Amino acid sequence: MIPKPxxxxxxxxxxxxxxxxxxxxxxxxxxxxxxxxTGQHAVHFAAAMxxxxxxxxxxxxxxxxxxxxxxxxxxxNTPPPITLQAVMEGGLQPAPPLPVVDGVTGFDxxxxxxxxxxxxxxxxxxxxxxxxALMAPGALFIAYGPFNYGGDFSSDSNRVFDGWLKTRDxxxxxxxxxxxxxxxxxxxxxxxEDVAMPANNxxxxxxxxx
Length: 210
Hints:
Strand content: 25-35%
Structural class: alpha/beta
Order of helices and strands: HEHEHEEEEEEHEEHEHEE
């Protein structure tokens, strides 16, 4: 048995993120989380929003740890985590089973936290390219994390963090909002809200056209 993973940052940011999610997910029934990490967010959000079904996903190496959090919480609205990765020239693979509600196929919301600055830019592009195949018409895509605006860091701490990321992996780094929004618009996603969050982070909410 591997030790149950834990990220202190998830405890810190779960409350502020939840406040944004609750405003947008009141009518949502099926959420796909991309890059669930430890699984802490999945448990926290699914427990607070019992009307929706929260599907966690990540790299296969992460699934046992996520499973520990889900099994311990034993919530009725968190199915087992699934493998899902951004694959260059392949989008998001393997294709997960899609919910069907009233004849409409696809998740009505997709969420990801602290992933876009960890992946290489090519994988960020692959993630956005793969979203339409997973999302129902009118579905939301919600991303949490740090972003630059106009090519500038929003804080000195983000500048330091970006340097640390690039030392760890030169392909990673804090993304420019304008570049990410261009990827979203290319896939038919329109920005609905840009929310300032604690610790110089943002929560961005896009919506797919009906």
